[in-house]
Amino acid sequence: MVDETEAGKGRRTPTRKEAEAARKKQMKVPMTRKEQAKRERAAREEIRLKQREALKTGDEKYLPLRERGPVRKFCRDYVDRRWNFAEFLLPFLVVAFLIMIAGSTNANVQTVLTSIIYPVVIVGTLIDEFVMVRGLKKQIKQRFSPDDVKGNTAYAVLRTTQLRRFRLPKPQVKRGAPLAQRY
């Protein structure tokens, strides 16, 4: 005979499947705010690592938002396939600064540098940028839509001012290579 005075637990015993699901759910839910912050930091770091790798390889899926899209890829390829006067501007300025410091005793060196060479380099850069932007606008209008020109030319100009080896995303085309038909 069973003694009916004993109290039961008041609920049915969960199935094995339900018990395992409950345990897994407990493992996923952070116990404290610190633990949750730690998991979020780890997730952000993982995204950053994927983006950094994508900047090296050109993987479109993980690129940062400002670098994504067929128009931006086209702009990068358009800039990377040509020689740009602007990419040599910064090294020239560093060399000119060093010459100015080292040649400070010789007034002829400073005069030639500041009155002839420096303006020629600046004007050359401006002319090259003008030619590049004009050609880029024309190509974007042909391949995409006229609305895509805005913002992408500034992106391309900024890319030309960087030395080729330090550009991110890394150049995917060689200098002088023809542009692909599809993007």
What can you tell me about this protein's structure?
Keywords: Membrane, Transmembrane, Transmembrane helix. It holds the Pfam family DUF3043. It comes from Aeromicrobium ginsengisoli. This protein has 183 residues and is an all-alpha fold. The protein folds into 2 domains: 16-57; 69-166. Helix content is 60%, strand content 0%. It is built from 6 helices and no strands.
Task: Give the gist of this structure.
The chain is mostly helical. It is 60% helix and 0% strand. The model has no long low-confidence stretch (mean pLDDT 88).
Task: Map the helices and strands.
Layout: H1 16-28, H2 33-57, H3 70-80, H4 89-102, H5 107-143, H6 152-160
Helix pairs in contact: 3-6, 4-5, 5-6
What's the order of the H and E elements?
A: HHHHHH
Proportion of residues in β-strands: under 5%
Structural class: mainly alpha
Q: How many runs of DSSP E, i.e. beta strands?
A: 0
Largest sheet: none
Please compute the radius of gyration using only Cα atoms: 30 Å
Low-pLDDT runs: none
Distance between the termini: 82 Å
> Number of DSSP helices?
6
Kindly state the mean pLDDT as a whole number? 88
The gross shape turns out to be elongated
| Helix content, binned percent | 55-70%
| Total domains | 2
